[in-house]
Every structure is written in structure tokens, then in C-alpha cells.
Amino acid sequence: MQPSSRRIRGPGRAAVLASMTALTLAVATSAGTGRLSHGTPHTAGPAAQPTRGATVGPCMISGTLGVQMSEGMPTPPGYTRSTGTVRALNLMIDFPDAPGEGTAAERLAEFFPQTEKWFSTSSYGRLDYRPEAPIADWLRMPRTFKEYGIERGAPFDPGYRQLVEDIVTAADPEVDFGAYDLVNVLTTPNAGPSALDTVLSVTFAGNHEAPVADGVPVSNASFVYSRQDDGSGSYEETGYRVLPHENGHVFGLPDLYTHEGGGAVGHWDIMSEDWGANNDFLGWHKWKLGWLDDNQVSCVTGSGTVEYTLTPLAREGGPKLVFVPLDGRTGIAVEVRTGEGNDEAVCKAGVLVYRIDAEVDTGRGPVTVYDSGDDSGGCTRRPNVHAELSDAPFTAGETFKDQESGVQVTVDRVDLSGKYTVRVTRS
Ligand SMILES: [Zn+2]
Questions:
Q1: How far is the CA of 289 from the centre of ligand 1 (A)?
Q2: Are 15 and 201 in contact (CB under 8 A)?
Q3: Of 18, 320, 397, 422, which sits 20 to 30 A from 134 (CA to CA)?
Q4: How far is the CA of 300 from the centre of ligand 1 (A)?
Q5: pTM higher than 0.85 for the full model?
Q6: Cα–Cα distance between 80 and 119 in angstroms, integer?
Q7: Which of the listed CATH numbers 1.10.10, 1.20.120, 2.60.40, 3.40.390 matches domain 4-63+74-250?
Q8: Quick one: DSSP state of residue 53?
Q9: Can you give the residue ranges of every domain in the chain?
């Protein structure tokens, strides 16, 4: 087997190419024809909410129109809504040159029920993810896998367009595409290379130029290939995690890993690392997705020092996020992470501090986690967890200071229930 560091970097690097290029093309194509005016009730995201109050308004940082997929708030329309009941159509496909390996039901069972459970836990029950598979068997494509030209970084046109058209033609007699909010295409694992070599899995999100089925474009679709099996024996528990990552894109979230891998955010968000042990979303993502209410977010706009209370992000209710906007597009976020809920890999609980730049595109490092102990080597030896940032959180008595902005976060204390008190200073 390859050493663990290789396993992290290899798939990360491959995946960034695949999804960055694909997303860029998908969104760029549709944006060129006025994607912003194409929001329909069927696909409206949390973005469709009315203008927020003055309390959190300054914290809703946003990028310019040139950014394809950004951390900005609100998420533009066109993506799948991320609260309430979301119906996910799952289609298991195979090819003449890659006939289905095992049964289609077994392939589906690699991702469910874990994926819906992951979303239910992360969203505090706000996202009711309903996976459906109206076609129980493999859906055979008319062309060979090779003919579609699916490879790392493949754009939507012409290969994926052809594939989606063929999927729609094959499934349409039995499937009402209009009844679903997103589509998962689960390919037979023997089509294409091993995920250890090249991660092909990709999502085309907000793409209203996609082929139309039952009157609606297949605009938010995730494609999963191969198996993210690192050989550590944990595949059955962790292999599904590529799907919540890919679905994160249909809800409008960018990739947080970069060409260098997971070094910017580490294992603190599934959009950064989706191999190995489970992890949750950042609090920022939960707010962006509508899983945290505005009153769970403290927006620090005044100067001086103010004390805030934060409860562990994985627990429902209570204050979760302190955000210090630096200007209209960047800010510093503060939250408490513990080894609860989806965060099974957390080896040092505490206050996580990170910077968000809504002007930085998907895969280019829109989020940067600050490490409380640079070059510490981290506190985990789990495979596929970026070790250096695993001990990034700040604990009682420690202070984070951003030299550039002068923003300072001091962790005062933590009580027995896990409630943290922090002091935030901005000059
Ligand atoms: Zn991705």
C-alpha cells in the first residue's frame, strides 16, 4: 500500500482537477445565459430568503460575479435547496465494457443509509434527505465507458452531456425527473480507474444548460466512480463520504482543498477531506446552508472587546458562530469543535478559528484554518486526516491574533458542559 500521506495528496490533487474544471465549466456556461434569473421554486436555495436584518447583515460577505462558486452569502439561486425535504434520485449505471459489478442494490447500499444520516446529523434534522432508487437494477448505457471520454477534469461538453442524455433516455420511461431535487449517478465501480489513482467523482451544480428531462434540466447532479477505499479496512464505514461531499456542491458549497491537498482546512470540513474518518461541516457552511439561525451567529462589527459564549457545533441549539467581518468579502470565523456528532476524528477539542474569503474560488483556498500550534505535527495518526491541522483548535488560556487585521480571540474558559467563553477584540 502507499503511505498515508500519499493517499491524502493523490486523491485530493486528482479530485481538485476533476471538480474544479467541471464546476467552472458548468457554472460558467449557465452564468453566461443569465443563470441568476433562472431560479425556480424547485431549485431555490437558502438564498431565496428575504433580506437579513442589520444584526448579521455585515457578516454576509460576498464575492464578485467573477467567482464561479464562492463562500459568499447568500448562495445564489440555481442550486438545490438545503433545508426541508430533498428528494434524491439515485441511478446505478453500467456500460457494455464495464458491466455492473455486484448488484445495483449493493452499490446503492455503499452510500445509504449513511448519507441521509450524515445530513440529518449535520443539519440538526433540518435537511430531510430522501434517497430513492425507482430503478432497482443497473441502467445499461448504450455506449462504452471509453466512448464518453470521462476522465479527470472532463468538462460537461461533450462527454457528460452525452452521458446525461443517455441516462435520461434510458431512465425516462420509469422515472419522473421532475419529482426530484438532485440526481446521484452511482457508476459501477469497475468503470474507470481506481480512486486511489484518480478520483473521477464530480458534480455539475447550478447548470441550467444541462439536458432536460420531464421539463426540468438535470442541473444538479453528482457522479460517483470507483470506491474511496484506502485499504485500511474502514471502507464500509467511511466509503460513502464522497457522496455528502459531492452533494455539498449541489447545495452550492465550494471545494476547500487545493492543488496541495487538505493543508488549508484539514479535516475540519467534508468539502476539504472526504476520505477516511468522518467529519462535519464548518459552522460557516451550516449557516450558509440554513442549518444555523441568524440568532445563533454573533456578528462582531464594533470595536473593542466583547465576550461571547459558544456551544459545541455538533450539538443542536445555542450560540454556534462568532464572525468578524474584515471587509465586504473576508472575515474571521470562530466556533467550537468537539468529537461529537459527525466529528469523530477530532483529537483536540476547542475553539477553531478560520478565515473566509468570498472572493476566492472553489479549489483555490477560500477558507484557511489557523493552527494554534504551527509545526506541531498534530494529534492524530488516522489515515487520510491532515495531521498538522488536527490540533488547530485553541484551548483555555490561548489567544489567536491576526497580525494583519489586529483581530484577537482569547479563549477564557470552558465549563463542564463544554460551553466555551471567548473574548473577541477588534480595533
Ligand atoms: Zn468537490
A1: 16
A2: yes
A3: 18
A4: 31
A5: yes
A6: 14
A7: 3.40.390
A8: P
A9: 4-63+74-250, 283-426
